[in-house]
């Protein structure tokens, strides 16, 4: 049995300013987005993309992540509480961010970016999708450092006690999500997107990959105490992930069917 190190959530102080590990993980995610995005923009396979576009997308995306993540948590997880205490919506330093809300926020932000740059939204999301998983991994590492979003009780050899929660051995579910939603999904998307794919296919694979990884990891994660298990014995995270999987499958089918129609048939080549 392992014991969580119970890290100090504050990484360091700059005078009166306390820099928290979770905030640093967000910064790591944004830096990785810039580095990988610039590399992707310089790829000979992609045309019409400049490294400067990545900087602008990050500017849009930061607002989408923060605003969407916070509002998603408020609306999906604790609407009654925050409607009764509306000023606490702005107290983000107390925690409370939703991936699914952040995802919708980023999607809206990218729509504005695509519109301003006269690009197709799916071209933008296909470009961005492989850049996101390592940022998600950094966020899950921040959850682990904070000892939050703990797993369900287990007797497995790598079970971990989180002293700030209780003395029960639990799944280190944050690390499961770090590996599944972050590292594994990054490798899959980066390899898949290294070749030319039909428009919308990379975005569809991201939805399938994240939705599946999150759905699986939720079996080891303790549901939020104020929600518990929902219909079918599933968690809120699982219910929010299922539409992502369905939409992702539909997008990939649509993308490849559309690409197939655009390819000349044997008869067309003979006529040519």
How would you explain this protein's 3D organization?
- Helices cover 60% and strands 6% of the residues.
- It is mainly α.
- It has one domain.
- The strands form two sheets. Strands 1-4-5 form a three-stranded mixed beta sheet, with no helix packed on it. Strands 2-3 form a two-stranded antiparallel ribbon.
- α7 packs antiparallel against α8.
- The C terminus is likely disordered.
Give the ordered list of helices and strands. EEEHHHHHHEEHHHH
Structural class: mainly alpha
Q: Quickly count the helices.
A: 10
How many β-strand stretches? 5
The largest β sheet comes out as:
3 strands, mixed
What is the residue-mean pLDDT, rounded to a whole number?
88
- What count of structural domains? 1
Task: Show unreliable segments.
Answer: 265-272
Give the strand order, joined by hyphens, for the main sheet: 1-4-5
Please state the CA-atom Rg, rounded to the nearest Å.
Answer: 21 Å
Strand content: 5-15%
| N/C terminus separation | 70 Å
Report helical residue fraction.
Answer: 55-70%
Oligomer: single chain
What gross morphology would you assign?
globular
Write the layout of secondary structure elements.
Blueprint: E1 2-3, E2 10-14, E3 17-20, H1 21-41, H2 51-76, H3 79-84, H4 99-117, H5 121-128, H6 133-146, E4 160-161, E5 169-170, H7 173-192, H8 201-217, H9 236-262, H10 266-271
Main features:
two-stranded antiparallel ribbon; three-stranded mixed beta sheet; single chain
Concise structural overview:
The chain is mainly alpha-helical and 272 residues long. It is 60% helix and 6% strand.
